[in-house]
Specification:
The protein is an alpha+beta fold. The chain has five helices and four strands; from the N terminus they run αβαβαββαα. The longest helix has 13 residues, at about 5-15.
């Protein structure tokens, strides 16, 4: 694991208010969980989150798993804080907690 990748990820999550590491793009998600994550953000008015397609870069794909100590993608970050994956996003969306975090 390269520390450069960790630096890149840290910079991405701290310089953008909403970051989604996903498979594919918001327009063409490559898995159902990524599609769900994009749908939830859209429903909350986040029309252009900063997204990273982990399928384009194996180092980033592994790097985000190590960075958050979380084994799966998608991964959502809000204001530099790791929120979780698709299931956690769904629960937080339904409870209203995610809307609060996005403020």
């Amino acid at each position: 694991m390269s520390t450069d990748i960790q630096k890149i990820i840290h910079e991405q999550v701290t310089t953008h208010p909403v970051v989604l590491y996903m498979k594919g793009s918001p327009q063409f998600p490559q898995c159902g969980f990524s599609a769900n994550a994009v749908r939830i953000l859209g429903a909350l008015g986040v029309t252009e989150p900063f997204t990273v397609d982990v399928l384009q870069d194996p180092e980033i794909r592994q790097g985000v798993k190590d960075y958050a100590n979380w084994p799966t993608v998608p991964q959502l970050y809000i204001k530099g804080e790791f929120i979780g994956g698709s299931d956690i996003m769904t629960e937080m969306y339904q409870s209203g907690e995610l809307k609060g975090l996005l403020g």
